[in-house]
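Q: Could you fold this chain for me?
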Amino acid sequence: MEIKKNKVKNCFIIGPISSNFIGNSIAKHQTKKNIGAHQIFLGQVRADQINNKEVIAIDYSAQEEMANKVFHDIREKTFEKFDLTCMHIHHSIGVVNAGEICLFVFASSKHRKNAQAAIEYLIEEIKSKAPIFGKEIFEDKTHQWKINT
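A: Sure. Below is the predicted structure, expressed as structure tokens.
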């Protein structure tokens, strides 16, 4: 029997990820009655103070085809490692203001521990491997490339 490989999906959303998008994503899973737990991670742009200037937004960019392939590989590896029912990764591209959501990761499983462990693993993998770049925009309209920590 041939194993079907999932195709590479576009994980990018232009601008901030809205609460409506997040809510609709959660609502779509209510029909899946084999799920016992959802774990969600929301990354939000912080108004950091850097050299006495406040970050008001981050302008995210990526080589999207390459980044989507990296997301795909992370996703496939996560499914191999954890007993999940489903999983979604969404990242912003373009300008996201301080206080807005730029990353939405959603994992579902029969039991909470799998979903919790998967989210922790996913976030670390995304932060260390995804070729996404953020340019911090300051209140005085100057900018600099963000350094991930």
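A (continued): The mean pLDDT is 93.
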